[in-house]
Amino acid sequence: MKLSTELLILGGGATGLGAAWDAALRGFKTVVLEKGDLAHGTSGRYHGLLHSGGRYVVRDPQSARECAAENAALRRIIPSAIEDTGGYFLSTPADPADYADQFLAACHTCAVPVTEITTAQALQREPLLNPRLGRVFQVRDAACDSFDALHLLAHGLRAAGGEVFLRHRVTEILKSGDRVVGVAGENLATGEPFTFHADLVLNCSGAWAGHIAALAGCEVKVTAGKGVMIAMNSRLVNTVVNRLKPPADGDILVPVGTVSVIGTTDTAVPSPDQYAIEDWEVDLLMGEGEQLIPGFSRHRALRAWAGVRPLYDPGGKDTRHMSRAHALLDHEERDGVSGMLSMVGGKFTTFRHMAQLLVDAACAKLKTDRPCVTARTLIEPPGTPLHALPKRLEALESGKWQTASDATTDTGQPPTASHQQPAATICECELVTRSQIETNLRQSGSPILNDLRRDLRLGMGPCQAGFCAYRAAGIIHETLGHSHRNSNSQLLQFLQERWKGERPVMWGHSLRSLELDLHIYRSILGLDTLPTEREIEVYPTERTS
Amino acid sequence: MAYDLLIIGSGLSGLFAACCSARRGKRVLLIARGIGSTHIGAGTIGVMNNPADLEAAFASPDHPYAKAGRRALEAALAELQTICTEHDYPLHGELGRNLTLPTAAGSTRQTCLAPQTMIAGDLARPEPFALAALPGFRDFSAALAAANLKACVITLPLPHAPRRTSGAPHTSATDLALLLDRPDYREALIAAWKPLLKNAPPRLGLPAILGLAHSAQAHGHLQSALGLELFEIPLLPPSVPGMRLFDLLRDDLAAHDGRFILGPTVTGQIHEGRATVTADANGRTKTHTAETIVLATGGFLHGGLAAESNGAVHETVFNLPVDTAGLGARTHWTSEVFFGPHPFSRFGIRVNNYLQPLDASGKPAAHNLLAIGSLLAGADRLTEGSREGIELATAWKATQT
Predict the structure, then answer these.
(1) What is the pLDDT of residue A533?
(2) What is the ipTM of this complex?
(3) Cβ-based contacts of A491 with chain B (< 8 Å)
(4) Does residue A51 form part of some domain?
């Protein structure tokens, strides 16, 4: 496949899609290439926090200011992906008492809105919190579902005429002399090669940015800082809770959807593609959870996952102390290679700001003056309800999803053709219906069960796909008509993928759940002996929440 | 009241031990916190996926089969068959020769005994078969199963599909089984299906929904009216064939004056070598003792064993020592591969050849305490396919004391 465009953006995470959406709104012909699915990298593996800036006020005032401004901006742009939980910074008996005054002063300096509240007020709203709280500050933290956010950006991008190509892996940067003129690679879904030419290539590949830059002959040192998170089975809090101390492991608990996520650890790993979750990391997070919520470790841990922060800090110390700031790299200035810009580092909360800087720089390179409009452009959600469970429940209850194929028959009425596929709820934990799956399959054409999970949250709830994986595999088989080997492979790959995130938290109820799942999938369904198409692949663990 | 036998746990092993004892005239009390393994099982009796491995299990001293012995296994299977036949739910098969039956994903499973409703699915038989696709029933994908089994699919709409009173917009296997218990519903179904089955192969596979209390009638009625052999394929839990086993064993226990209390949480005490248990039903506690107390609380799934994040594993009623094969750190409990084999599967209680649980020093923990079923250490039941066989054999042996 061959194609020409003005801007070619590498990376389908928050940085890349943010930049693509921005560029498309400014009238550029824009194409995004992503080697996996939307949010396949770090964006899909974060804790779900929209920063108020409070986390950075003491150590990194610049980031704090940007977070505060972008927090307000994203609430305007993608409100449907944000739950306004609010946030607390609170000191437990284990935290340094003198940090509170420093924090408050720094919030004022960085224009991060903050209000001190009494411990009684905090405990009234969050009764599970440690009753021996010290001071509590309220900030404008929120929960942001990155899958929802990225789907909105992709939707906004397509509406503005841009295109996204998933499962397109770049293997070569095409150059003409010292000028980057495009990329070549492979469509991983079909195995076909592709060549895309562009006036300018924007490298937004996050933790993989060093790899992409190297293909163009430029050296960019991105450190992969692994952060482990654990999803707890319920919303232990309804407010984001931060520890009032310098950033450390296990200092935040974020309510996301039906679960709460505790994070994070921070260790450098040699590659963004190879890392494991260690027992000590899980133990550490569970232990820190105890400080926030006494009895924390007796609640069920659903799964653990890790994301790799793309840290760019040429003066690099250890990853915990490396800057979370972004950097715009002009390879013409820096390496003598024109036609390509890289945006490295940064964090989810500031993706819009990073996109603006990047596309401003692109405008300068292409010698055109087009102002950024993203700060005041609302992305309306597409027709189907997004991830938020209450919205799904409402839709299901009100019968909005009962299309012809979803209706149930009344007792005594012979079924008509349109009544033959009742609105079976395939995934009960996340309220995913048969018609949603069928619609998604028809629209995306992707037979991959893992994509359904990211798109619809199928299998992300408490049973961790124990019941829905078989049902969904059957629907994929019936709808797309692939070979049985392909369908078997999808199902086995999906179960293996789920298992990787569950394995680090295998004790208590999770272990019971594993025995049940094994019983279903091995003993009753005999899946372990089904013929498959290919070896089951191993990817790093992805987030669930 | 003084009981000869007090059984804790209502899975297959607990229920079967209770029935066997009650049938021998013993005074039996069964206490369980909830319903056990039957409702998640396939409703079949697996003894060993590869029958040739059975001898090795009997010869391996730590295997639960070795603790029970061959005679117990043979007698247990025979007694279960007798009980089931008396309840008009015959189980077919014989030790040493497995049936190969289809699964709902189109794979195969090995089983020693299977109910009448399933045996026509024997894949060793040469006659072709079709699988029934029931539109709107989400727990059975005939298309995927048939593709794997190289069978054909016949779409058979369910007449008068009931609207769920709960508002749930789907029909469950239990709903359908209850409907199929009704002759009038079966007549409606026959009328709707008969024309669609004119050119069908001689055998037809259905999800396991053919009646609950009256499955023999349902199966026989449909077979003769539709003019072909029908076989059920087990589904995701809750399992209709498993419920039938539970119901008939419960009824048999009641018919032989056994007592069954479902609900209380049970804690055990051992005092001067004698075990007693305290049942707590919402704060109302009662202490029971018996000539023999049989612990049949199951493994991790059913709550007989519990694991903590710090690597501690304990038995939940008497806090008996658990054999974890020296695997302290939880990383070693599981395999990186979802399907295993997972080392934790072998965790459990160590017993002597009388099935008495052993304390840390290797002596019987109490003279009147036995442990049976999936609680016992030393077997990977999932890999072996030995779960029900071990449950029955150890239960039968526990009733011989």
Answers:
(1) 73
(2) 0.95
(3) 105
(4) no
